[in-house]
Design goal:
Structural class: alpha/beta
Radius of gyration: 16 Å
Number of helices: 4
Strand content: 25-35%
Number of domains: 1
CATH topology: Rossmann fold
CATH class: Alpha Beta
């Protein structure tokens, strides 16, 4: 089994800084933004992006977490998946631009579940998607608006994102 590191801590930091700038540019500033991370590793990524946007713009951006567990269409294959906490910032999502943040975009099924979960919470003005890694192999017509790294991969390869907040180190690896 061979594994190689494709992003180190400095690469991840640069990618997140670029994503933060792109979000600000796309939204024409921080007004009306809400950043929601998809557990598990999308949550610390969302926190980092919101912090970067606040540092760049001088205005804080609300950040939260959106659990999609009960909205997934594959629970029958993995029924022991533990739900995570959903936290919607004060002010909610109605008439706001929501940026969903996930670590790896693969089939698109997690994002479809996130859109369903978001619909139960409110009605955003728009929903955007930011992902650290886009590895392709979509099964649904979902495309990210902001990408840290496009990483072509074989369907049977595994992309692992490790973050300091959870794993003690920042890196992205790919292996078979």
């Amino acid at each position: 089994m061979s594994t190689r590191t494709v992003l180190h801590d400095a690469d991840i930091a640069r990618a997140l800084t670029r994503i933060a700038h792109e979000i600000l540019e796309s939204n024409r500033g921080p007004e009306g933004l809400v950043i929601l991370g998809i557990p598990t590793r999308g949550v610390p990524l969302a926190d980092r992006i919101a912090t970067l946007i606040g540092d760049i713009s001088g205005a804080p951006v609300p950040v939260g977490a959106l659990d999609v567990t009960m909205y997934r269409d594959d629970l029958h294959r993995n029924p022991t998946r533990a739900p995570h906490r959903t936290h919607i910032p004060p002010g909610g999502v109605d008439r706001r631009v929501v940026v969903l943040v996930d670590d790896v975009l693969f089939s698109g099924r997690s994002i479809r579940a996130a859109l369903d979960a978001l619909q139960d919470i409110g009605r955003p003005a728009a929903v955007r998607l930011a992902t650290l890694v886009d590895r392709g192999h979509r099964e649904l017509p979902i495309r990210p608006d902001f990408v840290g790294k496009n990483l072509p991969s074989a369907r049977d390869e595994r992309v692992n994102v490790r973050l300091a907040e959870i794993d003690g180190v920042d890196e992205v690896t790919i292996g078979s």
